[in-house]
Amino acid sequence: VTSPQNPPTRPAEKPVGVPVTNRQVLLRARPVGLPRAEDFELVERGLEDLSLGEVRVRARYISLDPAMRGWMNARRSYIRPVEVGGVMRAAAIGQVVLSRHHQFHIGDTVVGMLGVQELGVAPGDQLLKVDPSVAPLPTLLGALGGNGLTAYFGLLDVGCPEPGETVLVSAAAGGVGSVVGQIARIVGCRVVGIAGGASKCRHLIEDLGFDAAIDHKAPKHGDMRRAIEDACPDGVHVYFDNVGGDILDAALGQLAVGARVVICGAISQYNAEGRVAGPSNYLNLMVKRARMEGFLTFDYQDRYAEGAAQLAAWLAAGQLVTREHIVIGIERFHDALMLLFSGDKLGKLALEV
Amino acid sequence: VTSPQNPPTRPAEKPVGVPVTNRQVLLRARPVGLPRAEDFELVERGLEDLSLGEVRVRARYISLDPAMRGWMNARRSYIRPVEVGGVMRAAAIGQVVLSRHHQFHIGDTVVGMLGVQELGVAPGDQLLKVDPSVAPLPTLLGALGGNGLTAYFGLLDVGCPEPGETVLVSAAAGGVGSVVGQIARIVGCRVVGIAGGASKCRHLIEDLGFDAAIDHKAPKHGDMRRAIEDACPDGVHVYFDNVGGDILDAALGQLAVGARVVICGAISQYNAEGRVAGPSNYLNLMVKRARMEGFLTFDYQDRYAEGAAQLAAWLAAGQLVTREHIVIGIERFHDALMLLFSGDKLGKLALEV
Predict the structure, then answer these.
(1) What ipTM goes with this model?
(2) What is the DSSP code string of B312-325?
(3) Measured between CB atoms, does A160 come within 8 Å of chain B?
(4) What is the pLDDT of residues B201-220, one digit of tens each?
(5) Which residue in the set A279, A284, A289 is minimally distant from B299, CB to CB?
(6) Which helix (H) or strand (E) holds B44?
(7) B contacts of A280 (beta carbons < 8 Å)
(8) A174: which strand partners?
(9) A167-177: per-residue pLDDT in tens?
(10) Do B235 and B166 form a contact (C-beta atoms < 8 A)?
(11) I need a labelling partner for B142 at 20 to 30 A (CA). Which of A23, A46, A330, B99 fits?
(12) What predicted TM-score, i.e. pTM, was given to this entire model?
């Protein structure tokens, strides 16, 4: 029997808070299709010295995001691929344990691209200091962190929703989608979410205040197109897409004149071994004089503070409800990653270290 | 032997300019795939009386446009379908022969949606009076008419090209594409055209002043993607798409950051019997923070005068070069229509009545 005071992987004789080794998840092979456990390897290594300006962070929660699947591929997209043999890239939140940057001190809580490892190192200017009294750490990592900022800038700056318009969002019970829908509700839009399963759909309406929800595993009339038409009688003014594939296609078929389609992700396509399925209904962009536009959150870096402050204010006012699904143990990285693709989780998915 | 003075279809005893019957091309059946000759029927009918506000126009040139293929389908898009048994819809230019609208007089030259017929009738408020001294009638119908306005608003208002940017246009030797490329050149862009065949490509560079041309029937390296990459070393800032399909997909793969993709048409897909091919590379909109946007020229009706005046000024200044491909005889409507899809023509395609 092990107790929290004496966990099996961290012998008690090592001083708490000053680890001397680091467990890391490496990318061992580039996945083909759905990532397999063998594509990753958990290793334990000694620590390297910090360079000037660098900060060492003990990760508490590691973010699991669909974009990680793209980073595993050889092809450069907006960021270089993770190297085979390198630490898997991920965002994380944790506390500073060593700093060679004058703005960071031991004990500071920070968020950054620290990788899937217990002890990440990053230049201080790539870390964001956060206030742990504002919300629990998983919320600071999710709804008030990368996911929330993605929702905030993607919906408001790219989707440009107006009060009274209908906003449709896919993966609506996920880390990004749940915040998108709630911001749209705060803006004064009619909000329709697409999620997989009846319990997620209930959550959207009962907990998050969506106006309607579509279960893509069992759409009304057995038909996504008709289900969207039913739920969006005035057409879709803003569609925030996290999934791609058939759902994107169905949504494109129901656009209102002048609609905006925000391309945030395409989780249904990330494990495709052939070509990505292109949206057959894209010509509706012409018929409806609509636009489809992609964005990357990190283009808004100089406005992160604005977004984070607004999200925190909504959270404090009870207007923003968050859910986190936590998987415990860095050794369960692959299991947790699979939950992203199976959808067997609710809200923001994170790994507790 | 027949002479122009005594054509077989117009007996000499009828007074010239005051026809009493009207030859019309009717849509007989909705085409499946490529339209067949049997899908249309040429009939001769008597004239109906005009209602108040209507104008009768003797068509001189009838415009042939890819959009006509969509109007033949049963499904409503941005405009109601042509009825089976009804006159095929088309734009035309001609002279007023009878008017019950106070702003139109016999002899006025007008452009409007007059249908594929010798004598079209339209409400005066749907006709545009044009000055026949500005350019030959086919040019007034094409580069200074609907095609030119489509190019003008689509490129400038949707594509938003900036001097120094690279503008790529497909169907670049066609009625719309040739004007798009020349406006882009006037704006100060690097202009690359995609067209089918070496002679069209030569025309783009030698006659229209494009910077480069890609023959999609024989692209450099045998690969559209690489051919576009070669011709657009800084990436594509504006892609004006008239064709859809593989060419759209290849262009999406070469976007510059912040690119604008203008969806004007998709002639490669209009005769598809299955689903339209969606662009597999649409996720590059996210990677490149780019947008893809559709438009319809008639949304810009209140700015037609502005566009037409600017196009006429460029033509007068020698900055805009136009080509028209004329097929003579309303009875050759189907033959002419086929040239749109085979591409065996250069510039604006019109039927001389």
Answers:
(1) 0.92
(2) HHHHHTT-----EE
(3) no
(4) 999 999 999 999 999 999 98
(5) A289
(6) strand B40-46
(7) 275-278
(8) A347
(9) 999 999 999 99
(10) yes
(11) B99
(12) 0.93
